[in-house]
Amino acid sequence: MSDATVFIVDDDQAVARSLRWLIETVRLQVETFASAQAFLDGYDAAKPGCLVLDVRMPGMSGLELQERLAARRCYHVPIIFITGHGDVQMAVRAVQAGAFDFVEKPFNDQDLLDRIQRAIAHDAGQRGKEAQRAQLKALFAGLTPREREVLDLVVEGLSNKAVANALGLSAKTVEVHRAKVMEKLHARSISDLVKMAMQNQAP
Amino acid sequence: MSGASEAMLLGLVVLVGTLMVAMIGSTYLLLRLREAETRLHEKEDQHQGILDRLQENEYRLRTIIESEPECVKLQAADGTVLEINPAGLRLLDAGRPEDIIGTKIYDVVAQEYKDIYRENMRRVFAGEAVVYEFKSITLKGRVCWMETHAVPLRDARGAVYALLGITRDITEHKWAEEQGRRHQTELARVARLSTMGEMATGLAHELNQPLSAIANFARGCIRRLRSGDVAPADLIEPLEEVCEQAERAGEIMRHVRDFVRKSEPRMTAVDINLVVRSVVKFTEHEARQNETVVTLHLAPQQPRVWADSIMVEQVVCNLVRNAMEAMAETRTLRREIIIRTVRNGGDFVEVEVIDTGPGIDGAVIDQIFDQFFTTKPEGVGMGLSISRSIVESHGGSIRAESRAGGGATFRFTLKAIPIRLNRDERRYSLHS
After folding, report:
1. Minimal CA–CA distance to B410: which of B330, B335, B317?
2. What domains does chain A contain, in order, with CATH numbers?
3. For a FRET experiment, which of A3, B164, B251, B327 has its CA 20 to 30 Å from that of A136?
């Protein structure tokens, strides 16, 4: 079994059970929630996978759940909306608000499963990038303030001598700091360093 | 004394007596004459007083009428205008009194109100005081709404010789009222549409749930069977779910059916002519708004039909409204709806609604009774389909025809109650 989980939020328990029965045929783990609130309270954000969400639900609607997740300002699993007949406008709004995809009821089983697989792959990709970013952040966090200053100027293209002048240090000291930065960030060259600095600055 | 002197004395006495009598008499007569003369003078004075008062009265009345801001006019029984005040001339855009006086009032009454006007005139000359509204087209062709308070004017013997009418322009008031009514009609239409729309959407969503569950369970079973890694016993539970969900869908359908059936038809012996008249009455306003003349050709002494009168009313009403809408959409020269009731053989009563609209496109004439079929931009396509199901549930049939010269005819039949069904029924149908 894949380690990905399909989270299903549907107030209609029969529909939720039937989705589980269908999705389990492609060897994915399934967790069902009877309401948007139950999902917010009980889901583990660390688990990779995707969220299959009914647009229309009593209480908190699918769209509201999407808003709540977005308001948390941290990464969440991609959402596939299930819409009823005539809810296409709602689906469009959901996609504009960042939903991964939507299927219209009644849907073709293969179509739904394909979309779920794509969502899971997208999630894996996002999580990989997320992990890299976190690792980079950790490496940068290991630099001393002085090393950070030296790094910033080096990345701007200044020579050792110019950095030394700018910071009022000797060229020798700058040389030592630079070597330390390269070592801490596991960078093999200046161009590596520039790339990593840019990645770290990206949102 | 001698005999002669006696006779002379007697003669003298008689003469004196006669003279005295004559004198007294003439004095008396003179006195009477004087008296009569005095009385005559008094009478003359009195008469002059009455004449003065009459003239004064007339002058006062004339001043009141002339300066009256509303239109005041006198009309003869045939509608000839006898008198009209300046306000009336202004109201009708007439320059001089001769433009109106002597002409028929019907000349300034809009076509569709002439009958109403005539009927009210008749009532006034029969002695009633009436108030009526009508649409008027002035001498300059301006269309406006009028309200008239009319009373009969009687001569000394009590016979009505003229109609006194006070008329005012209520166009603005009418316009505001119209706006209000139009708004309300629109609201009602939107409410009806949205209720139906909501019901349909709700129903679609309700049914979608068990149907998608069934599809998911069934496909899950097929996938497992195809891949071969499933024990037959593991399929029992999901298949039971399939059955349950199918039952759930059935349950939803039953609710809908119950909801629709809530109003059982109430069948009575219905006089179709009465139904037609009542529809004409409550569509009168719309007909006027659409400048449509509705003409009735109702066969007298129709046998009754066994029907729910409200439902039949609904059918006639749908056909009349459709006709009006069809004619409103195009630039039809003459907007007329003819409703005919005919006895069709002995077993059926036939109702025809004929319009002078554009007719029905031959390509769609077979579909117009289908549910959700509509040619109107805002139609839902329920009217004719409901009409057909009502007519058919009454054992009748409904057809549409497009006539060669333009216009459409809708014709439906209802089963007639045989006249000899029972005595009560028979008496009823002969007297109604």
Report:
1. B317
2. 5-130 (3.40.50.2300), 142-201 (1.10.10.10)
3. A3
- Please give the mean pLDDT across all residues of chain B: 84
Q: Would the CB atoms of A25 and B227 count as touching at under 8 Å?
A: yes
Mean pLDDT by runs of 10 across the 203 residues of chain A is 85 93 94 92 91 84 89 88 78 88 88 95 91 86 88 86 88 89 86 82 67
> Does B424 share its domain with B279?
yes
Which residues on chain A are in Cβ contact (under 8 Å) with B235? none
Q: What is the pLDDT of residues B47-69, one digit of tens each?
A: 888 888 888 888 888 888 888 88
Q: Do A106 and B210 lie within an 8 Å CB cutoff?
A: no
B201 touches chain A (CB under 8 A): yes
Task: Give the residue numbers spanning the domain of B144.
Answer: 67-169
In a domain, B415, yes or no: yes
Domain boundary among B143, B169, B195: B169
Tokens of B255: 């609710």
ipTM computed for the complex: 0.77
Report the residue of chain A nearest B225, measured CA to CA: A25
- Convert the pLDDT of each residue in B82-101 to its tens digit: 999 999 999 999 988 889 99
B365 to chain A, any CB pair closer than 8 A? The answer is no
> What does the alpha-carbon distance between residue B50 and residue B95 come to, in Å, rounded to a whole number?
37
What distance in Å separates the CA atoms of residue A52 and residue A102, rounded to the nearest whole number? Answer: 9
Inter-chain contacts counted by CB atoms under 8 A, chains A and B: 62
Q: Which residue, B147, B169, B191, sits at the end of a domain? A: B169
Q: Is residue B21 part of a domain?
A: no
Q: Which helix (H) or strand (E) holds A102?
A: strand A101-104
